[in-house]
Amino acid sequence: MARKRHTDEDALRLLREIEVHLASGLDVAEACRKAGISDATYYTWRIERIWPIASWIWYCSRD
Asked: Which domain holds residue 19?
């Protein structure tokens, strides 16, 4: 089976979808299963795509 590659836009959309599921009370495994990705992929994407943005915002707000 060929490996599925997601674009950055797809990954961010899925991350947002998972965050909505988490806010509604699902655990990470269930939210990832509904989005169609593994929880390992979720954590990897979160580190690769969300952490740089959050650290940049923190850096800019330091004064």
From this structure: 10-60
**Do the domain assignments include residue 52?**
yes
Domain count, the chain: 1
Q: In degrees rounded to 5, what are phi and psi of residue 21? A: -60, -40
DSSP 24: T
In whole angstroms, give the CA distance from residue 24 to residue 30: 11
Torsional sign, CA 25, 29, 34, 35: positive
Q: pTM of this prediction?
A: 0.73
Q: Render pLDDT for 2-42 as a digit per residue (tens, 0 to 9).
A: 677 888 899 989 999 999 999 999 999 999 999 999 999 99
